[in-house]
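sorry to bug you again but im stuck and you know this stuff better than me. what follows is a protein written twice so to speak, once as letters and once as C-alpha cells for the fold. id like you to explain what the C-alpha cell line says about the fold, in plain words if possible. anything you notice is useful, everything is just below.
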Amino acid sequence: MIGPQNPHLFIDLYWNSTKFGGKLNHYLLGLKHLSYLDLSNSNFKWIHIPNFIVQSLRYLNFSCSNFAEEIPSSLGNLSNLNYLDLDSRYINDLSSKNLNWFFHLSSLKYLNLEGVNLNSTGVSWLHAVNMLP
C-alpha cells in the first residue's frame, strides 16, 4: 500500500528489458515517503531530468534512460541520497556546467556519472568527490 504507513516504498520501473518512457509528471511529489526510484534503461527521449524529485530519496538510478541536457541543481537538495547513477555513456547528451549541486550530497556512498560531460564545470570531478565528507 502506498502511503505514510509504508516508509519503505519501493518503486522499480525496470522489469527485465522493458522500456519505460514518456514524461515524468508531478505525481511523484505526492509520494512523500519514496526512498527508491529506479528508472534505468528507460527511454525518456531526451527530456530534462525533472526538478521536482522527492526529497526522501535514498536511491536514484537514471542510468541509460535517454535524459538530456543539464543536470538540474535541484539534485543537490537530496541530502539523504546514498546512491546516484546518471550513467549516460551510450547517449552522451547529459552534462553539468557546474558541480555546486554535488557538494550538498553529504550522504552519498555510490556515484556513477559515466558519460556525463563535465568539461564546462571548471572543476576536476576528483576534486569535487574529495570535498564530500
